[in-house]
Specification:
The chain is of the alpha+beta class and 258 residues long. It is built from eight helices and eight strands, in the order αβαββββββααβαααα. The chain has one domain: 3-Layer(aba) Sandwich (oxygen-dependent coproporphyrinogen oxidase), CATH 3.40.1500.20. Helices cover 38% and strands 25% of the residues. Strands 1, 2, 3, 4, 5, 6, 7 and 8 form an eight-stranded antiparallel sheet that branches. The chain starts with 19 loop residues before the first helix and ends with a helix.
């Protein structure tokens, strides 16, 4: 199909997409950094498909937003809507490796049995105090404030824990009025706090040495390889758009630092 989006900074056009507030906040936050589009091929800027019965087909649409700045290698957001079945925002912001910055990650998913909310500033080098000491203290404070207002999301796989910070906000909330209230009163301001803190870190980040940059790059690549290999959306993307397209999207767009 012919995409009606010309580059990754063009606005997302999904009608009534549940997570639009969060992408709008991200776009506004990065506007001060003179962003330019992140290069994304047309076939990944907008993708549509249909699912369900032939007599009652349902439309699924996926649009990808992205940018880059002087300090941010890639900020990208996968925005998916599949009728009443699911609504997804997968946002990852990746710094250049010559700045001692964490990743920013937000994964918000609506499923028939509830909303899954994951929010974090994920270190590239979790056990490296040079990398973590300047942000974990405040991040933990932000996390404690908002996680206390939310139900816990449950256990996460042990192999995944090395890629999350102690400030990982993780919750499962119900559909309906009670869940909408939590999104409005807790998730939105929590996201704002995490994002604003990350943007402050970007503003204040200084270039590191070549040796340090190489060390950070190794950590970033390990993180990206893990995310690509274990992406929980793989089955859904394959079902909607086919195996080949899904694998190209995961490895060459979502987690492209190999």
């Amino acid at each position: 199909m012919q995409s009606n989006r010309n580059n990754s900074l063009d606005p997302i056009s999904i009608c009534n997409w549940r997570w639009a507030y969060f992408l709008d906040k991200t776009i506004k936050g990065f506007s001060v950094f003179q962003p330019s589009p992140y290069p994304i091929e047309n076939d990944f800027l907008l993708k549509e498909s249909f699912f369900g019965s032939r007599s009652n087909p349902k439309k699924v649409i996926l649009e990808t937003w992205g940018l880059k700045t002087r300090k941010i290698r890639q900020a990208r957001c996968a925005c998916l809507q599949a009728g009443e079945i699911t609504s997804v925002m997968n946002l990852v912001i990746s710094p250049f490796n010559n700045y001692d910055l964490p990743f920013f990650g937000a994964d918000f998913v609506t499923l028939p049995n509830g909303h899954l909310i994951a929010l974090d500033l994920q270190p590239a080098l979790k056990d490296d105090q040079i990398h973590t000491q300047y942000f974990l203290g405040k991040l933990n404070s932000i996390h404690a404030n908002w996680q206390s207002k939310l139900p816990l999301g449950g256990d996460i796989p042990s192999e995944a824990r090395q890629y999350f910070s102690p400030g990982f906000l993780w919750t499962r909330i119900p559909l309906g009025e009670s869940g909408d209230k939590l999104i409005s009163q807790v998730i939105k301001p929590a996201f704002d706090d995490y994002l604003n803190f990350f943007l402050d870190l970007v503003v204040n980040a200084k270039r590191t040495s070549p040796e340090r940059s190489s060390h950070l790059l190794n950590g970033q690549k390990q993180y990206m390889r893990y995310r690509a290999e274990k992406d929980p959306a793989r089955g859904m993307l394959r079902g909607f758009f086919g195996d080949l397209w899904a694998e190209n999207y995961i490895n060459n767009i979502l987690f492209d630092l190999q």
